[in-house]
Design brief:
heterodimer, A: mainly alpha, two-stranded antiparallel sheet, B: two-stranded antiparallel sheet, two-stranded antiparallel ribbon, 6 strands, 5% strand
């Protein structure tokens, strides 16, 4: 009944397309805001160079934007094509922010982006500036609604299971929007997008300065990027810390896995800087630890213990057992249809918060309630995400975050002292930093979404239950289609980007 | 709670109408730029002409495409079961549409960025396919809904589709696909005629008149098809409680020969819908003949509304009938989201749709006027 190939392939397809989409989104959001800033300077100072800058970076923005839109269309429909049961199970809550994103954010962004490109000669300066800001605001609002939806997957608040419809249903939209995970995720993610935009502008400008081309444009652009980038990079780390704090509240297992924290240490727990997690013996080899650090960051106290993986697995085991009770009560309720027996209903209501844990058993025994102790133990260990990639993704991401802060601080200092243009080693370094924000963003996505496994919705719906009942051949075909299409598009995109960066501002092809 | 201001039955009905309105918005707005892409190879002879055609919609097509994306989001939010069963059932067809749609953003943006002739003709083909394939496949999917789709639910409401991709291509759905292509081509031709000068405009008018006549012919054949029971419909055996929680397993449905026309026998006012379809298409041909493309765009838009409403009203209350297990069919009263979600989404539509329509109209006003060969050659911003 459960087709492992379809599950693995669907996950691979969703993961690859999401990671690919997320190559273009950060640059769109970051550049949109930078364009709005540059054009604001143009309107305020009336200096022609700032208009040229806006148009030049706008051209590169456009090439990237097209890819973001092209790869975004498929994201919204993949929930239906590949994750049909997920869509049914949580669509009542999850669908709303996606629809509102289209209605209030993407409409705004997409409608005004056309005017941004084609309205230069048709609009007054202020009207065009307003257009550019609306594109920037629209793209940020888009990010907000998508992250509200995503945050609900991490921390499913404001909702309840309805046994009659067999799905989660909304109980408070206020809770869904003001989900603390959504708040910290939104600021952390958009700041990372701003950093991406800033690094892009800085790297391309550095390239021009090294080649002694487009001096006027490059020196102004690099100054804007340095200041904007520094503020954003600081915000990424501060809000990254806030994200860490919020997951301590609701995704203890994710935190423990990121930290490869097998045991519950006496508080405050230490931060493992380096180590090789050994999945067989449940220990870390060659561990290098900063005492107390993690306890402070994650709990902001010195006496709250952080539960380790082994204790959390034991907890999961008891929740699975309660989930079996909930599942049995649910089966009875489904048979009674419109006339539920109040006793069964009360039993279900008492245990329903653990229903999702009961569902973890479905891959071992379809009827759930006849699971053996051994199967329960196995299912409990399934709640531990894939430790090694999480451990390393997180550390590399944080490392890049601090590297970029150092880079922007130096850039800001050099720009303030008006020495940035002479500093060839620094310009080279800035150019080499180009891939860093993308690597960090993709790793951040892996930490967040791979770290959510085995859940599609934390504690509610295991990922493997969410798939559609499609055939392996179908998913292979669509996956191959994506690989071929996206590879070709990536080549075209990079080719055009390089071509237009080399061409530089002003020169255009008719 | 505040959401109980409107009862569940009314909300379900409102959302049925709203999804219809979004579909119509999609057909009117995205319809004209899909249609224009279909016309691209047939109305142009030179690269300059092709650039004129592309630049007619270059500033607005992105905004138009949001109607499609919003339609998907709204179906997800308002009818999660429909979203789940239809898109997983139509898996391969859906990916045909999605891959074709991917070609559009990059096609518009990248085509004129390199002056090489082969490069440009490759993207021209891509743009044509990006318009033609989704339009054709939408029509085919719609036609299959009339036939019923082989799907069912188990007790946990997991949906199972038991047909295969090639089953979708039977005569009636293929025919609906052609109708859909003609509708969007007609819509695209009116906009193209409005935004260009001769000779492109003249070609657009001729194409538009042909498309409008085909719409009238196909619409009539479709009607005869249903009237004679060659595509049997479905009907509810007993009325179900529209206030109960959505559960698609609690009703009995049977197949009946001309069930898709029952609503037209029962409620005479809904004849307005097919009338609008016929009237709209006829007037479109007429106005194009008189060289009034602006008026033709409006009447063509009414034709889109008329045809979509005709289809929706004949299916009502069915959204997605099941041919293999009719009792698993999805209808307006048992596929909706919860009372609270429907209410909340309605509030969101009331707040956000009017300003969206206003600023969209403003953007069209700013970008008004014809696109000429001179614009394309001198304006550096153009594609």
């Amino acid at each position: 009944m459960i087709n492992l190939d379809v599950i693995q392939l669907s996950r691979l397809q969703f993961g690859l397309t999401a990671l690919y989409h997320f190559l273009f989104v950060p640059l769109t959001i970051g550049l949109a805001v930078l364009l709005a800033i540059m054009e604001s300077v143009y309107v305020m100072t009336n200096r022609e160079i700032w208009r040229q800058m806006t148009q030049f970076w706008g051209l590169l923005f456009g090439i990237n934007f097209a890819m973001g839109v092209a790869t975004g269309i498929t994201m919204e429909f993949q929930f239906g094509t590949n994750w049909a049961y997920y869509s049914h199970y949580v669509g009542d809550i999850f669908g709303a922010p996606l629809a509102i994103e289209g209605l209030m954010a993407f409409f705004l962004e997409a409608t005004f982006v056309g005017l941004f490109f084609f309205g230069w000669d048709r609009l007054s300066k202020t009207a065009h500036l307003a257009t550019t800001w609306l594109v920037a605001i629209g793209s940020n609002l888009s990010a907000f609604w998508i992250l509200v939806a995503n945050a609900w997957m991490q921390n499913p608040v404001g909702s309840q299971f309805n046994y009659q419809t067999m799905r989660m249903e909304l109980t408070s939209f206020y809770d869904v929007i003001f989900n603390p995970v959504a708040q910290s995720k939104f600021v952390h993610t958009v700041s990372a997008c701003y950093v991406t935009g800033a690094v892009f502008v800085m790297a391309v400008s550095a390239y021009y300065l090294l080649r002694n081309r487009h001096h006027d444009l490059a020196k102004r652009s690099i100054t804007v990027a340095a200041s904007f980038g520094l503020a954003s990079a600081l915000s990424v780390v501060v809000l990254g810390d806030e994200s860490g704090y919020t997951i301590t509240q609701n995704q203890k297992m994710k935190l423990a896995a990121i930290e490869a924290m097998w045991e519950t240490d006496p508080p405050p727990a230490g931060f493992v800087v380096f180590g090789i997690p050994d999945l067989a013996t449940h220990q870390n080899k060659y561990e290098l630890k900063i005492p107390w650090a993690l306890g402070f960051i994650a709990t902001r106290t010195i006496d709250t213990p952080l539960p380790g993986i082994k204790d959390l697995v034991a907890l999961a085991e008891s929740r699975i057992q309660r989930g079996m009770v909930a599942y049995r009560a649910l089966s009875h309720l489904r048979q009674m249809k419109d006339h539920p027996d109040p006793q069964t209903l009360a039993l279900f209501e008492q245990y329903q918060n653990d229903l999702g844990y009961g569902l973890l058993l479905k891959r071992y025994t379809p009827s759930v309630i006849d699971a053996t102790l051994d199967q329960i133990r196995q299912a409990a260990w399934d709640t531990v995400p894939n430790i090694t990639p999480l451990f390393w993704s997180f550390r590399v991401m944080v490392g890049i975050g601090f590297t970029l802060i150092a880079l922007f601080t130096t850039a800001f200092y050099l720009a303030a002292r008006r020495r940035i243009l002479q500093n060839r080693w620094f310009l080279k370094l800035s150019f080499l930093a180009l891939p860093l924000p993308w690597i960090a963003a993709e790793l951040g996505w892996i930490v967040s979404e791979h770290g959510r496994q085995p859940w599609a919705i934390e504690g509610i719906l295991p990922t493997y239950l969410g798939v559609s009942s499609v055939t392996t051949a179908q998913v292979w075909l669509s996956l191959m289609g994506f690989v071929v299409f996206y590879t070709l598009l990536a080549i075209v995109d990079v080719f055009l980007m390089i071509k237009y960066i080399k061409l530089g501002p002003i020169q255009r092809i008719a | 709670m505040i959401h109980q201001l409107i009862d569940y039955e009314t909300l379900s009905l409102i959302w049925w109408a709203l999804i219809g309105v979004l579909l119509m918005g999609f057909a009117i707005m995205d319809g004209f730029d899909m249609g224009l892409a279909i016309l691209l190879p047939f109305t142009t002879k030179t690269d300059i002409e092709r650039r004129i055609v592309i630049n007619c919609i270059a500033p607005v097509w992105e905004s138009n495409q949001v109607w499609f994306i919003l339609g998907g989001g709204a179906i997800f939010a308002a009818w999660p079961l429909v979203y789940a069963a239809a898109f997983s059932g139509f898996y391969s067809a859906m990916f045909c549409i999605l891959f074709a749609l991917i070609l559009r953003p990059v096609g518009f943006k990248y085509r004129s960025k390199v002056p090489h002739a082969t490069w440009r003709s490759i993207w021209d083909v891509a743009l044509f396919l990006g318009g033609f394939i989704p339009t054709f496949v939408f029509g085919i999917a719609f036609g299959n809904i009339f036939h019923g789709i082989p799907f069912h639910f188990d007790d946990s409401l997991q949906s199972f589709y038991t047909g295969n991709f090639w089953d979708l291509f039977t005569p009636f759905p293929l025919f609906c696909g052609l109708l859909s292509v003609c509708l969007f081509t007609m819509q695209g031709s009116t906009y193209l005629a409005l935004k260009t000068e001769d000779p492109v405009a003249a070609r657009a008018r001729i194409a538009g008149i042909q498309a409008a006549l085909l719409v009238i012919i196909f619409f009539t054949i479709g009607w005869i098809w249903l009237k004679n029971g060659w595509v049997p419909g479905y009907q509810l055996v007993e009325r179900i409680n529209p206030h109960a929680s959505s559960n698609p397993l609690a009703k009995t449905v049977e197949s009946a020969v001309d069930a898709w026309l029952h609503n037209y026998e029962r409620y005479h006012w809904i004849w307005l819908a097919p009338l609008l379809g016929y009237g709209g298409a006829t007037l479109t041909a007429y106005f194009l003949l008189l060289k009034h493309p602006g008026k033709a765009f409006i009447t063509s838009s009414f034709a889109q509304i008329g045809v979509i409403a005709t289809a929706g009203l004949s299916l009502f209350p069915f959204i997605l009938p099941s041919s293999s297990h009719p009792n698993s069919s999805l209808i307006v009263w048992d596929s909706s989201s919860s009372h609270m979600t429907l209410f909340l989404m309605l509030v969101a539509v009331i707040i956000f749709l009017p300003p969206t329509l206003l600023y969209t109209a403003w953007v069209f006003r700013v970008m008004r006027g014809k696109v000429t060969a001179q614009d394309v050659q001198t304006n550096k911003q153009m594609y």
